[in-house]
Amino acid sequence: MSEQKIDKKRRNLVVATCAAGGVASAAAAVPFVASMWPSERAKAAGAPIEADISKLQPGELGIYEWRGKPVWVLRRTKEMLDSLKGIEDKLSDPESDVPEQPVYAKNDTRSIKPEYAVLVGICTHLGCSPTAKPEPKGEMGADWVGGFYCPCHGSKFDLAGRVFKGAPAPVNLEVPPYAFLSDTTILIGEDKKGA
Q1: What share of the chain is helix, strand, coil (3-state, %, to 5)?
Q2: What average pLDDT does the segment 148-156 reach?
């Protein structure tokens, strides 16, 4: 065989080997790159959720899950709303001045619509889950106006999620971003501008 034919075959073999190697490298990289994209489950975990509040009766607490956290929607009665007034001197942050709160949480009800409180049900002290104690007085003492009590370390919050002075919790319960899609549906995890 002539030297030219051997060189031509050698070149063809090198080109074919390089092409096969490139295809194999690309095929091997696809699963690796795809593993870096968030899964559908991970995307859904951070996605906003719709909460149907049509069945909540006055005084009732609904619990919904958003980002793996319990979100409370409390439909407050007139008496519950009245209990939020006149206790500012007992609260650590009555005006919700801590900047992590949405603008619509900077009022005495800490809500868009006073009738509904929307709160992340996790104590701001060490992440325990407080218990709803909406009834005034009773087992919580004569000065209790109703609210949430964290039995782990004794933090107390009113029915707007504002922390009482002297509690281990440093700040009010978190108000998540939310918006009313209708009178019976709340979108938790996203607020609409102008809401």
Answers
A1: 30, 20, 50
A2: 89
